[in-house]
Structures
1.
Amino acid sequence: MDLTVEWGQVHALLGENGAGKSTLMNVVYGLIRADSGEMRFDGAQVQVHSPQDAIGLGIGMVHQHFMLIPPLTVADNVILGQETARAAGVIDGRASRRTVRELSHRYGLQVDPDARVQDLSVGVQQRVEILKALYRGARLLILDEPTSVLTPQETEGLFQIVRGLTAEGSAVIFITHKLGEVMSVADRITVMRRGKVVASTTPAESSPADLARLMVGRPVLLRVDKGPAQPGLPLLQVDELSVLDDRRQLAVDGLSLEVRAGEILGLAGVEGNGQVELVEAIAGLRPTRSGRVTLCDREVTAASPRRRLRAGLGHIPADRHRMGVILELPISDNLVLGDFDRPPFARGIVRLLAQVRDHAAQLIKSFDVRAEGPQQVAGALSGGNQQKVVVARELSNGPRVLMAAQPTRGVDVGSIEFIHRQIVEQRDAGLAVLLVSSELDEVLSLADRVAVIYRGQIAAVLEGDEIDRDRIGLLMAGAKTDEVAATGEGG
Amino acid sequence: MVSMRAFRAWMVGVMAVALVATACGGSSGSSTAANGCSKTYKIGLVTDVGKLTDKSFNAASWQGVQQAASDKSLCVTAKYIESNQPTDYRKNMETFVDQSYDMIVAVGFLMADDTLAEAKAHPNVKFTIVDNAYDAAPSNLVGLVFKEDQAGYLIGALAGLLTKTNTVGQVLGLKIPPVQRYADGYLAGVKSTNPNAKVLTVYQGPGDGAAFNNPAWGEARANDEINQGADIVFGGGGNTGNGALIGALQKGKMCIGVDVDQYLSYPDAAKCLVTSAEKHLSVAVKTIITDAVQKKWPAATLTFDAKNNGVGIAPYHDYDSKVPTDVKTKISDIEKKLADGSLQTGVTI
Amino acid sequence: MPLVAILLGFVVAGVAVAITGADPIQAYLGLFQGAFTNKHAFTESLIASVPYVFLGLAVATGFRAGLFNIGADGQFYLGALGGVFVGFSIHGLPGVVHIPLAILAGIACGAVYGGLPGFLKARFGAHEVITTIMLNYIAYSLSDYLINRGPLGDPHSSAPKTPFIDPSAQLPIIFADSRLHLGLVLALLAVPLIWFLIERTTIGFRIRAVGLNPEAARSSGISVARTMVLVMAISGGLAGLAGADEVLGVSHFMPPSFSIGYGFDAIAVALLARSNPWGILPAAFLFGAMRNGAGFMQLQTQVSADMISIVQATVIMFVAAPVIVRWLLRLREVPAESLQITQPEGVGAAPKT
């Protein structure tokens, strides 16, 4: 495959997970060696065998997971490995701080060199990563899925920084799977599918629907088709719930919400505002400090995960690899994780493996899991198919409440479509659905009502016309409801 | 420097040789028959879990076997097997029996039951066991016992005379009769020369690591006793006792060895060793081997004491100038009285 | 691959033997003869393998749940104490009752002693490696007390040991003119039983799920705490069975220093078998044969019996580090992260003109 990036341009690399975007960029950055082919930089053929080579050429990369040392200051993190040393190896702190401040000012990054990284928000940490790359003389900056951790406002800020960089003549490769971002920031777009470039275009020459079709290889329904909700009685109620996080800090702070049968309640919020702890507390995986959780009129605040499962709770966990599937076990076993010890899958303590396999074969078919068969280990499946296994398992238990946390994270567009359709179908069948997602687009397209979580509390619950991207964005960033209403009317 | 490639080739080569050699098999390589002997007498020694490296108990027994083997007139060849654990004792003796050995030397009281069973199972093989007497044994089994209490009495008397803190200690192996005789003899000896002295005593328990082979434990106990005021420590229990000697050495206190002259066998502790309570195991083992070869196999347990030079006290070596002459005189006087039977230790175990 | 590791272990230890001045070929010949071809050698190798089978299964079962049971040695002691106590204290029972009773006592003692660290981990988060190491020391001291000065000592002997067990509690000899006892049959039965338990029952599924991904197991309703206690009890029970079996089948009483490191060797057995119950059989036999052949090896060459420990340790090192083996044999290394997509044919960044 070929790819040409020009100076002064934002070049978007668009593709689903597993399309080869990150692999390609890791080759460019010297983390992986190419089997064949050549690479030219500024017209000259170059060999990049390590990140050091790449940095030497002026290539910088900001990874999805930041590589910062939290207790150190911004300046220290930026100069790490490239310290300007005075005599006897003493770091010249003043010089480095000055350089960092200059760079920050020049590109409008607005970062305080003396702040400690651990005290910064995710969006600012990302800017520190960009600073790091610039400090090392990067003229070609690779950003790998940079918006997955940002609020809409922070995303807009990032776009401005990117535009500033290209205005100075640098080039930016922007890796993403989000169509909207591509349309608003890119100068050129390269679409990848299964390791190959399938199209090279510009935002002016294409539309989101075109790009989606190119990405997936077939026409994709971008909007989720759903009728109006017909809510019934509340099935999941959370009252004044308080939960501590792993550091024993209050993560969920007297939070209340309710989800009714036949509706999807979307929980929007920047990651780290208590979503994880709330979901784990509802699932029975984390003790609560105070408050109540009621499931189908039964109080389950202190019940075990298993009892909640039996009481009708289905749970699609946020971190699929950590909590959703057991990668080393076959699909068939993963599909009965909650039921393996009950008929028809066991008699006494003896497992009935034939039943388990039949059950799996059935679910693989009805949930369109692309697998070799029930005995294939879950780890061999793509992210989307692993997620379908989780969805299939949770729905096959016959739940009345479905709690879906980040249900489409790391999932290909084809599977996203399928999972979204399942969620809507389940709503129409009368389930109460709590959708927790940091992808605002997902919440906006699926939810009947939107609750915004900020610092462990519900900042607002929006319904109908109140559901508005800007308004939600401001609430996610901590604005008060009345301020938001004012700006909403003003704009 | 050898290149990695060469090293790799070498390793693979060595492996191939080892493979071939193991696969081909072959005859036994043992051929140490002494010259000029019409028949060699084969002797196998089985150690207890203390192993030959204990520098006292098993080592001295093996020394006796070697002395017999180097005596050309006896026509003896000898091999040993060290036991890793108690359930191996019978198996290891059985290995010698299967190889048509004429006589088996079992070292240590702990092997008593197993040696008796083996002797009963193989009446044509001669068995001897160091440090054990049987109430009833088959004629092919003879126990070798010592009056350790006499040796213990001697060093106890010496310790009683030398202590400045009026406190002496002893760190012992498992509480089995030979060890107890040393300990009780030591106690009686101290009291005979210094009735007001305090004697601190600690035995190793079966759970305190390997029996007779836990020097760390011994060292810790010696430190305990020194902290309670002891200025002389008797280390009586194989490698465990050796640890106690080291403990005393490091605290700058005096120590007393056991079984053999440890000044020679365990020079690490030479600096603190006043003397050692000797039990001439090598003498005893060589005696029984000689008896067997010369067809003078005894009918009952052999006892070794001060009278037949079976027990005694080792030279003072470095401490020769530091031990006052009147003390030396008193000790040699006691030794004479023990030998002629005019003095009893009062120990009856 | 384990076979290559074993061979390499022998080679490296052979070098060590040569350094001590002995002939490694003669030493290995002696080892081989002592383990297989001499009179009684083969049956003695089998006898020595039996405790390794039970203990290997014990450690492997723990591994399957992600738990590192270093306490097998202590559980072995407890099992031996339980077995020997029932063996000598109850009289007049027929063998068919007495033997199972003594074995069950051993299993029960081991299971309780193994379940305890499981409980401490589940309830208080105490790491099982630390608690089991400490419980080993407690087990040694407890058996010391019981045998030496306590209620299990033999009142008719001045040696620190328990009385002999009644003949009705002795495991019958299953092969004439040898010491080979019924324990071998029990060991051969235990392997498929544990395999079935782990691979085919709901209990085993819980164990594997917790071992592979405790978070996922917990979030789908499996009680991780209960599973940990159960696994440690099963592991301890197997180790206890090994102890009871040694007492009832081989020694018939309990001497001091009953096991020097059986429970630790068992970790190596389980590693060599990659925690697969069927793999335990050859691994245990290898260790049993090496331990048994060591005596004859020493008789032949007078090399230290510690060389066997060096062989064992080297084998484990090579098993644990397959990369070394691959490097030595020049096997092509598989990259740690294999690429799943087609590689780009060319990547170029052209300058703006």
2.
Amino acid sequence: MSLLVLGINHHSAPIAVREKLAILERDLPHALAALSGLPGVREGALLSTCNRTEAWAVADAGPVEDTLADFLAGRHGLGRHEFDGHLYCCRAGAAANHLFSVASGLDSMILGEPDIQRQVKTAMEAAQSAKTLGTRLNRLFQDALVTGKKARTETGIARGTFSVGAAAVDLATQIFGESLTGHTVLVLGAGKMSEVTARHLQSRGAPAVLVANRTYEKALALANQFGGQARRFDDLPLLLQSADIVVCSTAAPHPIITRALMNDVMRARRGRPLYLIDIAVPRDVEASVDTMSNVFLYNIDHLQDLVAGARQSRSGEVARAHEIVESSVVEYLRWERSLEVAPLVVAVRQKLDETRQAEIARLRSRLPDLPEKDWKAIESAFQSLTNKIAHPATVAIKAAPETDDALGTLETIRRAYGVENLDGAKNWEGSSD
Amino acid sequence: MTESALLIFAALGYLLASVAYGAHLFLRQPLLAAAGRYATLAAVGLHTVAIGVHCAHTHQTPFTTPAESLSASAWAIALAYLALEMFRKPRPTALGAVVLPAAFLFLFAGAFLHPAASVQTPTLPLLNSNLISLHILALLFAFGLLVLAFGCAALYLVQHGMLKQKRVHGGLFGKLPPLASLDQLAFALVAFAFPLLTVGLGAGFVKALTGGLRGLWGADPMVLTSVVTWLVYGLYLGLHAVAHWRGPRANYLLLGGLLVAVVTYFIPTSAHRFG
């Protein structure tokens, strides 16, 4: 039996192809039942997000790829030619590496994004509910979730910023704290970037977003888009006193927030810090405002610089995350190999127990008058002896997969203990990683 | 184990904790923070035993000589930090990288820079007093908290500097607590320390006035710097709460306050000498 995955993702297929193969969450139970009913498929799971659809299986040896591809096509009444060139397939260690990388966000459109962790968990739980997740896939998905968490915690792949809006929020959290609860946001002007930035700030807990524009109706329209409140532009001095984060994006040809205005504002604010995000070109805020105490002024260049730096520093973090993935793959494969030799361990133990019981029975028939408490001592001694004889064999069997001649080692042990041929020991193929 | 060996191991524990917290600041590995925490715990435990052994051996409190005071101060700093780690969430591990080195330095200074001062001399009978015990203990714990406040102020100024100067790549950027948290924590620490400082100094003054030592204390440098320390922190609390002082100037005041407090330790004194 081997592990494999077949699917498409945002690297291999455009959205027009991906959307044809996507499986909705409500259709998963039916799809999983169909997957596990395929010939040769012993375990199955499906991972379907906006960026990928993957069929996971533990299957008998043989060309199961075609079976899975036909399954994916058949679900949506498609012909194989519509997506064959976009499919990828991985087996064994490469498949494990793929899932662990996916769960870590290394294969995502936005590096390190956390949503995929939840989506992998959903896929696992759906397969558990549908009872299509067996021992191998269950362990694989569990390990993927652990690896994903470890990669995000121990490296910086999930940290840093990849957009101007996210960079602005990152800086806000460094001034005011992780949650922006209790800090009012003021948006001056209109425009897509200021709207996106305001949304980012709202997502971090900023409770109130005020929007001011020279044209009140425009302020109202923008405010309504994300549940904010419109304000008159003439109230700018008062607005600057109450807001802690100001996103400036007007079309004014000259600065609207001057040093003189800010002197009065900061006096009224009594030292409370003020964060100005000036994404307008030409700038809305006089450069000299930056030197004021308790004022933090970042313009579009600063924010883009932050984004560029974050992208650069992530490459080292990506390498570290891949190391974590590779380490997890090695552990998974080691576990999988031990699973395959487990039947021989059980058989050797069983053989020794049968021999022990037969010898005790023979001894009993020859010494019928021995007191029962003496038999207890004899049985205990035989048990101890059996354990001591079994132990080196158990250790050798478990270590065999790591050796060069694993098959030969297992065969020798099997013959030495007089165990009959078993599927697990005979068919052990070794790692195909 | 002898008192010296216990102190050496305690100092090594503070040093190890400093390294672990410092490494965690840059590398963000949870295991490093845990190592720092356990090293601090072990060091404080050993230090406590060392102080106990000292008291059992000398039959007097461990604050009569400069060496003893420095050692006790190191203990108070580490203990205050441990308490903060236990009760504050998220854990202020960045602060550990600042204050544990201070604990190590104080213990080092006490153990190695004043070896002659560790020789015990009999304490004056007038020091066998509850007021003196209150004076010493209150000031000791106040000092521990003020060192933590100093740590917060130092981190605030570093974070503030990075944000103001747009030093947004590498180094400590993104790794320090937010300005608001540091400001809030510093204020809370001083708010706890100031009453202890007041009680400690007050107990000392009452004892000085009622213990037959009138006339020796008025112009003593140590007394004067103690009062200045009290005034600086009182000013900080007042300006922060009433005049809403925030930002670098409030934190510079905290740095200055601890500087005066440390000067108090080492300033030559004639009246405040008992060992």
